[in-house]
Amino acid sequence: xxxxxxxxxxxxxxxxxxxxxxxxxxxxxxxxxxxxxxxxxxxxxxxxxxxxxxxxxxxxxxxxxxxxxxxxxxxxxxxxxxxxxxxxxxxxxxxxxxxxxxxxxxxxxxxxxxxxxxxxxxxxxxxxxxxxxxxxxxxxxxxxxxxxxxxxxxxxxxxxxxxxxxxxxxxxxxxxxxxxxxxxxxxxxxxxxxxxxxxxxxx
Length: 203
Known about the structure:
The protein is mainly beta. The protein has one domain (9-202). 0% of the residues lie in helices and 57% in strands. It has no helices and 15 strands. The strands form 2 sheets. Strands 8-7-6-5-4-3-2-1-15-14-13-12-11 form a 13-stranded antiparallel sheet, with no helix packed on it. A hairpin with a 2-residue loop joins strand 2 (42-54) and strand 3. The chain starts with 32 loop residues before the first strand and ends with a strand.
């Protein structure tokens, strides 16, 4: 299969302000989420998000594990682990570790001094206070800029609400996220650089 490539980081499988510069992200004790991940119709892994706490102090732990094979031979391995914390309803900190075919990346981000400070494998940077990690499970993030939780880099994308419970992400990534009436993340579809289709289906 010569068309098999390493899935692009730009799919971002894996993703507010205490003060007036950014909207408050209203989070109400989400239920744990589990998805099967498919590439061109074949299952390649799973993506799980577990939550603890509540709107006053919420922690979300994400684990995404994927393996792409040609026959019995693995040609791509991916594991993304993230711990994201919110305080008083807004993003507070993020720590991620990602290994893609043996290449390790890390991100540490925190809200401090009226901005978002990021220390990652590619250096240190600062984002505006209304910037959030692209986590997909919280559709309130689409109100402002987003950064890649795997690389720590700002994402050059446009987000738009295409209909009830349907958000689109276009630019360096092509993703559609879907939510139910209560705001819970239900599914995702996306396109990789090689044109292959990725789908998240709730378990």
